[in-house]
Amino acid sequence: xxxxxxLIRGRGITKVFGYGAAKTTAVDTVDFDFHKGExxxxxxxxxxxxxxxxxxxxxxxxxxxxxxxxxxxxxxxRRHADRKKYWKDIQAIFQDPxxxxxxxxxxxKLLLSCIRLQGLKLTKEEQFNKxxxxxxxxxxxxxELYNKYPFELSGGQMQRLMIARIFMLHPKVLxxxxxxxxxxxxxxxxxxxxxxxxxxxxxMTIIFITHDVGLAYYVSDTIYIMEKGQIVERGxxxxxxxxxxxxxxxxxxxxxxxxxxxxxxx
Amino acid sequence: xxxxxxxxxxxxxxxxxxxxxxxxxxxxVDFVLEEGKTLGIAGESGCGKSTLALSLMGFxxxxxxxxxxxxxxxxxxxxKLSKEQLRTQISGREIAYIPQAAMNALNPTLRIIRFIEDxxxxxxxxxxxxxxWDMAVERFETLNLSPKVLRSYPNELSGGMKQRxxxxISTILNPKVLxxxxxxxxxxxxxQKAVxxxxxxxxxxxxxxxxxxxxxxxxxxxxxxxxxxVMYAGEIVERGTAExxxxxxxxxxxxxxxxxxxxxxxxxxxxxxxxxPGTPPNLKHVPAGCRFAERCSYAQDQCRENxxxxxxxxxxxxxxxxDTGTLKEWYANEQS
Amino acid sequence: MKNSFNILIKSPKFMLGAxxxxxxxxxxxxxxxxxxxxPLEMIALAFQPPSSQLWLGSDNFGRDLFLELMYGIQTxxxxxxxxGVFATAIGLIIGLASGYIGGxxxxxxxxxxxxxxxxxxxxxxxLISVSINSRSSLVTAIIIGITSWxxxxxxxxxxxxSLRNRDHVHIAKISGHSTPRIIVFEIxxxxxxxxxxxxxxxxxxxxxxxxxxxxxxxGPYNTISLGIIMNWALVFEAPVAGAWWxxxxxxxxxxxxxxxxxxxNTGMDEIFNPKxxx
Lengths: 266, 336, 278
Description:
The structure holds three protein chains of three kinds.
Chain A: E1 6-17, E2 24-35, E3 39-43, H1 50-58, E4 65-70, E5 73-74, H2 80-89, E6 90-93, H3 97-100, H4 107-117, H5 124-137, H6 142-145, H7 155-169, E7 173-177, H8 185-202, E8 205-210, H9 213-219, E9 222-227, E10 230-236, H10 237-242, H11 247-254
Helix pairs in contact in A: 4-7, 5-7, 7-8
Chain B: E1 4-16, E2 22-34, E3 38-42, H1 49-55, E4 64-73, E5 76-77, H2 83-90, E6 95-98, H3 112-123, H4 129-142, H5 159-170, E7 177-181, H6 189-204, E8 210-214, H7 218-224, E9 227-232, E10 235-241, H8 242-247, H9 252-259, H10 301-305, E11 311-313, E12 316-318, H11 324-335
Helix pairs in contact in B: 3-4, 5-6
Chain C: H1 2-10, H2 12-34, H3 65-101, H4 103-118, H5 121-131, H6 137-147, H7 150-163, H8 167-174, H9 179-215, H10 226-235, H11 238-241, H12 248-272, H13 274-277
Helix pairs in contact in C: 2-3, 2-12, 3-4, 3-6, 3-7, 3-9, 3-10, 3-12, 4-7, 5-6, 6-9, 7-9, 8-9, 9-10, 9-12, 10-12
């Protein structure tokens, strides 16, 4: 993987919330290297700081310390124009499909705004075809959906629509923050397969933020294990899961019920 | 000689919509739970598993209504009892129910001990406050929970601790059956493990005799319950031992469910996950024939036309037109 | 939005409130066009009881009280609406800024809001009214408006700061949308129903405030409002003269207008409040 082009590189990323006595360090000197087309999982339990780290990578939160390079250049997000340029390449899918949608916008408007975002000038028919293509990529029928409001869809459908959005925008980096933790197992496989397909087609870098070790193992090339704001272990997925070096990683893996090995309840 | 602790037959319960339509979320469920056994219920969201759990309590609040069928606990049909009898004799004593997100339903202004005192006032009014306290401390200690928790307020406890406390409170009267609906789905893996351990302790120490565990996390059921029952569109489509269900499923729906399991184990990577196209049928208009037919890759014309009866083979039940030989041959071909 | 409007029409409480309000509004707008007399013209003896000529009798100057009432309701509603617009607009802007920007701006604006909440607004109202020499009904309305925004600001701030952390706002941000656009399309629709409700309440309380300060003789000059009618009745001792028609109809009108507005508000609350709705 390291032979591929380095896309985002972080050194000593730190995020401190609050002042004085109420000061908490959510992310503590984290280093990372994400390459083009790589699938990374940042695994940690709630409160490990993984979502904060994701927001920093997205550019939604400002880091308190450390530096991030994007495409070999220091990342600058000072002006709105800088941010806009950075966000052209970065997209996200969030955990809760119900809060990811603006309840007042129809499905059609959501997808139309993707076309506008890319600055494409298309005829009505081209627009229609593009939206239809995106929906069929995620096994949804645009003809049935376009006129609906988000709350008329199921959680799985909403999450797939979010992927359709990513399909239309084809960003360079996708941050998926627990994208399957609120859908059931069957929809989960569908969603994961779609994301993997997107990576294969567009050479997209996908960063999964998850607490699910099994999922991380299944989808990713590289796994980062995060505990209390720090990365305790990182490496190729096979090594981390089948041969963990750190006590915390071993603990995390052993806490998950498996089907071929006994589950030690201790 | 084992006795049946819970016997459900022909149970139908429905939701009444605003337009006065009846939507049967539990549509003719039969099952038996033997004393000392544990049963898992799995299925996609919207398949009726939570409604089934709620229905087993015998309490019905609109929009949920009782349709027909019986629920027997130790041979006593609780559907024939009055609300008052249910409340004083059954609920908490015979069956305890832990709904989804129960841990967030604790009144934040009361200390934990108050919840236990309230239960005791209702069921064991002869006990003094001191006796209740001693009893609660003893129970918490036996279950490896710190008695300090009793003096805490709910929001001082972590999510996992809150959930364990709720379980300990609900089982304080030693109910015969505990029904737990997704008790671990909002928790971290570490807390999940602690909750599972608590339920195992309750069973080992015979505070409860049987457990009905509802979740969509199949690997969890594999380690917790003796039997697994899979629901689809308000019906039970298959039941067997956990071992059989995970490694040798019969019904095509179970097969797909088991194929979607993800665990951090060797061989998982590169393994093709099973996906089920489409969504479960809208229970307002259940399709004729097999309810799974429209999403089933093996469906034939007869599946869409004829209703399917439950088949029983070697103590396992499944609801499919095809015999086990045909199904297994298909599955074997698919693998190669 | 169209949807909510359709549900709103089905709410009996809202329809009752809106019905009363519209009928009153129509009456006070149309009647002066039919009866084109000057309401301040003295046409009869003082304190004449109601008759077929003078439907609500005459006041101490012998003026037609029914005509006065029509103009009074008009002014009161106008003052209430203007006060409502000002209070809601200020509250909305301060609440949105405070909730959306957060940080130091939030701390500062929240402190200002809290200061305005703890100072009794009625006292400020009296002090400002006393210190201003030329008081038109517009000035009174604006004074009422700028003393009654804090509750709106506080509620809007609370809702905005929770909406700000919703994922659809994050998605709008990383889609590169500008802040004003995000506020208009991602935040405002969610609080719109609340803001409309707050506006209705502010209008009702604006009408009450106007009546209160006018009764104290601190209301607008050169106009007739419900509070001013009551003030005249008090100053010229209508209760002593037994002339109930000089103040009861005005008091009832105030009650009826605010009642209709509160009914509309309750009706909307039942529909827009998701807790009650489900």
